[in-house]
Design a protein that fits this description.
Layout lengths: L1 H19 L21 E2 L3 E2 H8 L7 E5 L4 E5 L7 E7 L6 H17 L3 E2 L6 E6 L10 E9 L2 E9 L8 H20 L6
Antiparallel strand pairs: 1-2, 3-4, 4-5, 5-9, 6-7, 7-8, 8-9
């Protein structure tokens, strides 16, 4: 009787092992990553809402608030703390000289470099994207900045995101959001980024 039980157990173990042996014909492929696309409506006039939702995974209602002027200001979503999105912009004006814009960009370069930033592609001007591990509770960890010319004036555009959805490449996605934001900025300001 013991021998019969052992044989039954041995058969069960063999069956289990053969059932768990991987079939070499089955190949696992990762799900394709959905690209960030330029589509209305826009948050803060610059960032596609669906793009932000895709990149961040935010599902809540997004209301925005802004302060400042067309030349220098900021805009943010009021959905949570920290805000899902914060956008800041500044440009060279009669009051804000080119040297000051250069100084601001030098400061951003130093900070982003300290956190191992990725340089933006050259067509976006001088810029960086990085994850900032140490920030205050109301701040965003994911940040991208670009310094560029538009209409012969120097500009700086900052995008801050509170989170990146699981499975997304945060740096690549932030660069794509910046690309879209710069195009929108050019349309709104009637200038061509890079000129």
């Amino acid at each position: 009787m013991k021998l019969l039980r052992r044989g039954g157990v041995l058969a069960a173990v063999m069956l289990l092992i053969s059932a768990c042996t991987p079939d070499e014909a089955i190949v696992s492929t990762p799900a394709p990553v959905i690209p960030v696309v330029d589509s209305a409506p826009y948050l803060c006039g610059l960032v596609p809402e669906q793009g932000l939702r895709l990149v961040s995974g935010v599902k809540t209602l997004l209301n925005e608030e802004s302060t400042g002027s067309k030349e220098t200001g900021s805009c943010w979503t009021q959905d949570a703390l920290p805000d899902s999105l914060r956008v800041a912009w500044t440009q060279e004006t009669a009051k804000t000289k080119r040297d000051h814009i250069d100084f601001l960009m030098d400061d951003r370069r130093a900070v982003f470099t300290r956190y191992g930033a990725t340089k933006l592609p050259g067509d976006l001007g001088e810029g960086y994207a990085a994850y900032f591990p140490i920030v205050q509770a109301e701040d965003q960890h994911y940040r991208v900045v670009a310094g560029f010319s538009c209409g012969g004036k120097k500009r700086i555009l900052d995008l801050y995101l509170a989170q990146i959805a699981k499975g997304r490449d945060g740096i690549r996605d932030m660069i794509e959001l910046m690309r879209i934001a710069q195009k929108r900025y050019g349309r709104l300001h009637k200038c061509t980024p890079g000129e």
